[in-house]
Amino acid sequence: MVEIDTEFWINRVVVKRGYNTNTISWKEAFNNLNDSIIKNESVRKEGNRRYVDGTNIEDVIRKNVGFFVSYNAERISLVPDVLNDLGCLVAHLYIGIDVTNPGFGRHNDKTDVWFWQNKGISRWDFDNGDSYTLNEGDLIYVPKGVYHKVSTVEARFGISMSLA
User: Fold this and answer.
1) Count of CB atoms within 10 A of residue 164's CB?
2) Helices (DSSP H) in the chain: which residue ranges?
3) Is the model's pLDDT at 66 over the cut of 90?
């Protein structure tokens, strides 16, 4: 299990380079997405969750191509071990294949999030000016309430994990 020094992790973004390079294949990622689509699970209604600028998340996803979400990534073979290692319960798969797609744009999350980059490259920009580029196998921890924007640098996917 990942040793988490709560004094260090609380309210801090933390990146662990090369956390787990035994990553999921593109085939497994798309199989999970396809399975979710077949089971009508691929897009979950987010209620009243909105971007900072007031735009509804579902509207953005519908209008933009090249960004896909599966809310059942725990069914991917390698994910349960990572969930256990991080002490998380929930896993979502995010696939970005269009570098011009804004994804979720600038937002914050209501729970602490760990994101494990599996393929490709993503850039994480934070309101305090910090910016991190994640490569295959890297892990980032983002505390709840911290505003950030994730951009696709090259076609990529990763697993977002949390307690809820």
Assistant:
1) 8
2) 6-9, 26-38, 57-63, 79-86
3) no
1 domain residue, yes or no: no
pLDDT of 143: 95
pTM of the model: 0.83
CB atoms within 10 A of CB 87: 12
Check if the beta carbon of residue 150 is closer than 8 Å to that of residue 104. yes
The answer to whether residue 21 is domain-embedded is yes
CA dist 155 and 164 (Å) reads 27
- Residue among 134, 157, 150 at smallest CA distance from 24: 157
Q: Does 154 map to a domain?
A: yes
Tokens 């073979």 belong to: 77
Q: What is the CATH number of the domain that holds 99?
A: 2.60.120.650
Chain centroid, CA 52 distance in Å:
18
Question: What is each CA distance from 72 to 16, 106, 121, 141, in whole angstroms?
Answer: 24, 24, 22, 20
Residue 129 neighbours by CB under 8 Å, 6+ apart = none
pLDDT at residue 106, as a whole number: 92
Closest CA to 111 of 53, 164, 46, 55: 164
Task: Take residue 58 and report the two structure tokens written for it.
Answer: 């579902």
